[in-house]
Amino acid sequence: MEEIKEKANYCLNCKIKPCSNKGCPLGNDIPGFIKAIKEEDYKEAYEILSETTVLPAVCGRICPHTKQCQGSCVRGIKSDSVSVGELEAFIGDISLKEKYSIEKLDKINKHKKVAIVGGGPSGITASAFLLKQGFSVTLYEKYDYLGGLLVHGIPEFRLPKEIVKETIQKVIDLGLKVEYNQELGKNLFLKDLEKEYDAVLLSFGANITTKMGVEGEELDGVYGGNQLLEKKYHPDYTNKKVAVIGGGNVAMDCARTIQRLGAKEVKVIYRRAEEQMPAETKEIKEAKEEGIEFLFQNNIVKILGKDKVEKLELIKTDLVQKEGETRKVPVNIPDSNYIIDMDYVVMALGSMPEDIVNNLGLELNKWGYIQIDENNRTSNPKVFASGDIAGEKGTVAWAARSGRNAANHIIEFLEVK
Q1: 273 and 333 together in one domain
Q2: What pTM, to 2 d.p., does this model score?
Q3: Could you tell me if 179 and 124 lie in one domain?
Q4: Cβ atoms 309, 222 nearer than 8 A
Q5: Same domain (yes/no): 282, 367
Q6: Do residues 267 and 242 make contact, with C-beta atoms less than 8 angstroms apart?
Q7: Using one digit for the tens of pLDDT, what is the confidence trace for 123-178?
Q8: How far apart are CA 329 and CA 321, in angstroms?
Q9: By residue range, what is the domain housing residue 239?
């Protein structure tokens, strides 16, 4: 506890709040909740956070803090940044231990019914902000658990499942009705939801791994990182060499999970430099400490093998500043090709929506995501979308922000009606 107080006291309580206004996707009042920690008023700190988020115990652990709140901290200009993530997780954990509830506003809208499809961070957050305003909310989830990628996309060693379960229970306690094992396009249909509810929010994930389009990608032993984490269809990695392609947190989670499952050797291959990796700095550091090797500025040429992966051909890259680009672009260096032995290749390069989006009768954008306007509305005025399926930024905090925005826009829509 003394260590936490010391870390809280390190905060300068800036009036301009760059950590909140610039660094936090959710706009959490970071100096405000830290000031409450200094005063040892932990319930007040939780209530301050609850104005903007329902996931403090989660985001405090897994957000890319060095690229968000801590990366915007004034103290970080000349010294170490304030440990915002650790302080947020501390309050989140206390709220679970002491069973602090989410405040429900004194407003009755129960005659207005909202259906939410997808129980990940975006859907959970939207549910909470609608319930706080008194709306009747039913959440439809294709699995028999809530949390989405918080459960099946982020490994236990990064985010304990019990933390997720207890966090979500707070939202359920607000009066959330949940229908499990309901999958859109199979036993759940948008046209039926439109008839039964005043508004519908689509907040399910876009978890199909993006293809590279290289030769050999169809070979046995080539996996999509998102599907591996979600479905857990792992092969036997014992004494095997595994290449993980990508530089984000999905790549880090795949590599560290595979290492724990007994792989002989795990290499992360990334075509840019280390400082350009989108993964959280802490995750990269911990992966290195666990013995995972990184091949920076290397690009895949082809995957070699007759029926299954046997080798990988790589080419070295140079980083070149091109007109119109905000960061240097990797360019293959001629005649720098080389071959390494590999047993499995995991693609962790990003994700795209499942085919179901093509059958919803909604307008899609050029990348195949559901098209939304500035109010999260789709081409169907009664249907809203948020999070991954709407092509929003792919972190938990941004997904939650998108869900909160959608909830507020649904409230405006229903109150106008």
Answers
A1: yes
A2: 0.92
A3: yes
A4: yes
A5: no
A6: yes
A7: 999 999 999 999 999 999 999 999 999 999 899 999 999 999 999 999 999 999 99
A8: 6
A9: 209-347
